Amino acid sequence: MRAKLYRFASENDPPEWKERGTGDVKLLKHKEKGTIRLLMRRDRTLKICANHQISPLMELKPNSGSDRAWVWNTLADYADECPKPELLAIRFLNAENAQKFKVKFDECKEEVKKQVEGSGNTDSANKVAEKLEELSVKDKASEGKKEEDKKETEKNEDEKKEVKADKN
């Protein structure tokens, strides 16, 4: 769906909306992880102008009385390679496309919310717990080796002392 993307440049004096690009906006779902991200590329250059994950906390708000534009916050937009928080606005050709986008965006938000609340969260917690158990076992094993090494060096030192005492 074609749209025009803007970002809020708060570093300017006075702060203003700057155009990021015009192009097709896509909502892409990761096949394995189930995460959903918003990706938008500029028409001619195909340079990325928006690239961030959809989170359950994101909220589309109408832009200053326009029925064909939406505003939202993202915590980490990767359009400029390094992630940074952005206030973004998107404007469509007509109100119908804007409503379609909002419906799809909200569906994606709900899907991500279900995934976070569902089994994905407990699975990752279980994986972390298993890794922690492995770490503690490795630590104990390495501690045992350290103690053995320590005893062996003490034994060698005692033998050296005995040899020196015998020579005297």
UniProtKB/TrEMBL annotation:
Location of the region described as Disordered in the Swiss-Prot/TrEMBL record: 114-168
Residue ranges, compositional bias (Basic and acidic residues): 128-168
- A GO CC term assigned to this protein in UniProt: nuclear pore
**Entries under Pfam families matching the protein:** Ran_BP1 (PF00638)
Q: Which N-terminal stretch is annotated as signal sequence?
A: none
- Domain RanBD1 as annotated: residue spans: 1-114
Q: Which SUPFAM superfamilies match?
A: PH domain-like
Note the InterPro entries from the entry. PH-like_dom_sf, Ran_bind_dom, RanBP1-like, RanBP1_RanBD
**Molecular functions per Gene Ontology:** GTPase activator activity
What keywords does the record list, in alphabetical order?
Answer: Acetylation, GTPase activation, Phosphoprotein
Q: Which GO terms describe its biological process?
A: nucleocytoplasmic transport; positive regulation of mitotic centrosome separation
Question: Does the keyword Transmembrane belong to this entry?
Answer: no
Could you say which protein family the record assigns here? Belongs to the RANBP1 family.
- Subunit structure, interactors included: Interacts with RAN (via C-terminus of GTP-bound form) but not with GDP-bound RAN. Identified in a complex composed of RAN, RANGAP1 and RANBP1. Identified in a complex that contains TNPO1, RAN and RANBP1. Identified in a complex that contains CSE1L, KPNA2, RAN and RANBP1. Identified in a complex with nucleotide-free RAN and RCC1.
Q: What does this protein do?
A: Plays a role in RAN-dependent nucleocytoplasmic transport. Alleviates the TNPO1-dependent inhibition of RAN GTPase activity and mediates the dissociation of RAN from proteins involved in transport into the nucleus. Induces a conformation change in the complex formed by XPO1 and RAN that triggers the release of the nuclear export signal of cargo proteins. Promotes the disassembly of the complex formed by RAN and importin beta. Promotes dissociation of RAN from a complex with KPNA2 and CSE1L. Required for normal mitotic spindle assembly and normal progress through mitosis via its effect on RAN.
What protein does this entry describe?
Ran-specific GTPase-activating protein
